[in-house]
Design a protein that fits this description.
The structure holds 2 protein chains of 2 kinds. Chain A is of the alpha/beta class. Helix content of chain A is about 45%, strand content about 15%. Chain B folds into 2 domains: about 100 residues, Alpha-Beta Plaits, CATH 3.30.70.3250; about 35 residues, no CATH class. The chains are: A alpha/beta, B alpha+beta.
Amino acid sequence: MYEAVAAYPAGDSTVSRQARTAADYGYDGCVVRTREAEFDADAISDRYGIDVVGGIEVDAADPESAAGAVGNHRPECPLLLVRGGTDALNRYAVETDRVDVVTRPMAGDGDFNHVLARAAATHNVHVEFHFGPVLRASGGPRVQALQGLRKLRELVEEYDAPFVVSVNADSHRQLRAPRELRAVGEQIGFTADQITAGLEAWGAIVARNRERAADRFIEPGVWRGRYEP
Amino acid sequence: MKHLPKHIRPRWRYLAVAIEAAPDAEIDRGGFQRALWYAAGNLLGDAGSADADLTVFGFAYADGIGEAIVRARREETDAARAAVACIDRVDDQPVGLVVRGVSGTVRACEESYLRGRSPDSTEDSVAFADDQRPAIRRDDVAEISLPEGFVAATELDFH
């Protein structure tokens, strides 16, 4: 199971501190969303026994600038996320094969519907269930976030769209263990298996993208073998 | 009032909760209990919160790390775990919480899951972000004081 976190300078904890806490809580890996974060993934892996993956979360105002950033960053990172939150950005993200995950689709003015869910399934773009407000907000904003999660869950189940689960921790204190997330998920209508699948999906995306970046890879199902020069 | 016969007394489970906060955060048992009740009330509702019957049994906290034992009804441990996960702040101080384990008695809970305090923290100066900065260190972790606030780091970040 993997968790995706923000790190210093975007958050209050460095990558190594997030990774240390995630390893302590039983995660197998930790995806870093912050492009500016400086870290030595191998040193952290050796020390704390956790896979650290440098991802990039594209936070753009409109689809045009998001498209530019996706083109720039796709070759250099094993995990590319696009922050949703408006209808135009959600639509752009789920219809772009090069994007791995659309994050916080229901935040702000963002909304999701059957067309986007179907597109996400077709283009294999994972939709993020953002658990942050469930754990950290209260009152009206939390109710809205729960409503958003429910709508998203119903669409994702109906159209079998791929999904990931994350709490979007800015600091290591905001991280929660997988078992706690399963318990919270069950209280708000998810099944424990859905939460587990959502946390494991991060690892599956990373493994797939690393495989594709390998020298032996030609296209899905085709590898450079002994007959290739 | 006369206590209940043993076979109809409620069955309890005890959750061992590890607490982590900023080194200068002041957290006490009352604040933690209040935060727990609010979290349970908001997540589970009044009815669910009454069913879970959460009570803080043991509480120890100093210098940013602590431990608590939370009692819940036996059938409601999952709800209790969810309520604990939803505690974000205690007395307006951000806290990190994790349930280390669940036991049937307070004693088993302490012996199995709560290991007592880590070594005490020391004030030190470390090299971080191109400068020497004051920091509070414990084990291999440190809270580094920057102009914009504390940054949580580990030894691997010092250079």
